[in-house]
Amino acid sequence: MKSRWSEDDARKHADDPLAMRVYTSRLLGADENLVMHGGGNTSVKITETDFFDDPVDVLYVKGSGWDLKTIEKAGFAPLRLEPTRRLATLDTLSDLNMARLLRSFLLDPGAPSPSVEAILHAIVPARFVDHTHADAVVTLTNNPGGEAIIAELYPDCLVLPYVMPGFVLSKQVADAICDVDLSAIKGIILLHHGVFTFSDDARIAYENMIELVDRADQLIAERVKSPHPERELAVEPLELARIRRAVSLARKRPQLAMLDRSPSAQGYASRADVASIATRGPITPDHVIRTKRIPVIIPESPGQDVPEVDAFVRAYEEYFREHASPAQTMLDPAPRAAVWLNKGCIAFGSSQQECEIIADIARHTRWAVQTGEALGGWQALSPAEIFELEYWSLEQAKLAKSRATQPVHQGKVAIVTGAHSGIGRATCEALAADGAAVVGLDKHSDVVDSLAEQGLVGIQCDVTDTEAVRNAIEQTILTFGGLDIIVCNAGIFRSGERIEELSEQTWDQTLAVNLTSAQRFMTAAIPYLKLGCDASILIVGSRNVHAPGPAAAAYSVSKAALTQLARIAALELAGDGIRVNIVHPDAVFDTGVWTDEALKRSAERYGMTVEQYKTKNLLKKEINARQVAQMLSTIAGPVFASTTGAQIPIDGGDVRVI
C-alpha cells in the first residue's frame, strides 16, 4: 500500500479545505483495496458564515450516493457541526429519526443526504476524518484469532468490536474516545468493518490510513506464502444460459448472468473446500446489500432446471423467517452471486453495472477468504448480525427509492445483425434505451468501436459465415449469460436489374445475406432463446413482400422468403414461448442499403424528385430508422406479449399494400 500524495497537486488546494478534502478523498477512492462502489466516507470541518454573516462551524461529510473515486465538492453534505455532535449525547435515537434530524441540520436543503456515519465524523475533533473498508484489515479481523492479531499489529490504535453502523457505532466511539488522547493514536480499527484515521492535516490523515493498511498488507505478505490457485477451464454456454434462466425465474424478472472465468476465479471455484469457505458470509456486512449473505453453489454440470437455485431460495426464506420481526417484509430471495464449481464466479443483476459491482465485490471477497484461510481460518459475522444490516431501516429506505419502474427490457440480452448503421444501429440504441444488454454484429470493423462509445458490444462478423455467427452468439452468452431477443436485420439491396439481365452474383449474394444468413442465425440462436425470458425473434422485412416493384427481383424474393421463414418459425416456436414477428418498412433512406445513386434511380422510375419519393405514402411522412427501431423494441416488449406471426407495416400507408 503506497501513498499517492503529490505535493504539486496538493499545493493547488492549500487555501481551500473543501477542495483539499476532495483531493484526498479521491486518493482513497482510487484504490479498490480501500473502498469500492460508494463505500467509505470522509469529512472536513470548516468555519463559515451563514446567510446573516454569523460564523457557523460546518461539517462537510460525504453524501449518500457519491463515490470517493469521483467525488466533487457537491458530493459533500454541509451539516451544522454542533447539533450534529450533540446527537451523540442522546441515550437512544432510531436510525430513521437520525436521518431526519441530520437532514434538518443541512445548511443547503438541496445537498445530498449525509453519510450515516456523520455523527461519528462530528465527534472526532480533528479537522479531517477518513474512513475505509480496507480489504487487508478486514481480512485480519475475520479470523478466529483476529483480535489478538489486530492488538499486536496496532498498539497505537483504538480497537473496537463490531456494532451496527449509524447511531449505535457513533455512541460506541463517543464512549471509547472520551478518555483517550486522540493525538496519541493513529486511528480506530473497527473489527469486521474498517479503519478511521484523522488529523488537522489532510496529508497526515491520509498517510496514516495508508500506513495502517500497509501494516496489514505486510503481515499478510510475510505469513501467506502460497499463491491462490489459478485454473483455465472450458465453459459450456448452454449450461450458463440454464443457470441464468433459473435465477431469472427465482427473481421473477430477467437477470444478466456475467461469468468471471479468469484464472483466479476458476482457481477459486476449483478448490475442494470452496463450498464451505464461500458460504460463511461477506467479508464486511455492507456487502450484503449488493450480494446477499452468501452465493449459491452451482455444480460443474447443473441439471436441466438447476435445482440448486430453488434450494437457495428456500434457504433464504428460512433465514428470513428465523431472524425477521413481524413488521419486516422479505426481499426477493434470488441469489446475486454464484460459485460455479470448476467454471468460475457468476454475478446476477438487472443491469451490466449491477453485475460489475457484484463481480468486483466477489473478486475482493475471494482474495480475502483465501488469504484468511491461509492465515489460520476465515469466519464472518453471524447470520443474525448480517441480517440486521441487510434489513436495516436506512438501507431499506434506499432500496425503496430505487424501486422505480424499470425499462421494459431491463435484464434482457439482445443481438442485432447489420448493426453498423441504419435500422440495425438504431435498433441497438432503442433496445439499450429500453434496458437491454445489446450486442451488434456487422462485417464492418468500425462496429466494435462505434457501439463501445455508447456502452454496447460490437462484434465484427460476416453474417454469411455460419461459424462466425455461432461464435458471436456463444461470445454473447459467455458475456451476459443468455439470449432473449434477436433481430434479423442484415440485408443488401441491389436494384436496376430486370430478370432477363439479373446476374448470378446479384441473385446469389442477395439471397445469401437477406435469407440464408437469417436462417443460420436463427438456427444457432434458438437453443438459447428457448432458455430466454419472453424471447422474441424480430425480422426486418420489406414493403416489397406485398408490393414488389420491377428491377428488384432478388431483393423482393429474398424478403418474401424471409417472411415465409418467419411465419414457419412462429408456428414451430410458439410452444417454447418464443414470439416471431415481422416489420415491413418502406422508404427508410437513412440506412446503408440506400445509396444516393439507388435513391435517385428509384425516384426517376416513379417520375418524382428525390424529396417527393421520400414521402410517397398516404400520410406524406418520411420514415426513418429510429421509428423502425422503436417499433421493433416495442414488439419485443409486453405490449405485444400475445402477438406472434404478425406482419406489421411501417411505411406511412402504401396504396398498393392497402
What does it look like?
- This protein has 658 residues and is of the alpha/beta class.
- It has three domains: 217 residues, 3-Layer(aba) Sandwich (L-fuculose-1-phosphate Aldolase), CATH 3.40.225.10; 166 residues, L-fuculose-1-phosphate Aldolase (3-Layer(aba) Sandwich), CATH 3.40.225; 209 residues, NAD(P)-binding Rossmann-like Domain (Rossmann fold, 3-Layer(aba) Sandwich).
- It is 43% helix and 14% strand.
- It is built from 25 helices and 18 strands.
- It has a seven-stranded mixed beta sheet with strand order 3-2-1-4-7-6-5, sandwiched between helices. A seven-stranded parallel beta sheet has the order 14-13-12-15-16-17-18, sandwiched between helices.
- Helix 18 links the parallel strand 12 and strand 13.
- The radius of gyration is 30 Å and the shape is elongated.
- The termini are far apart.
- The model has no long low-confidence stretch (mean pLDDT 95).
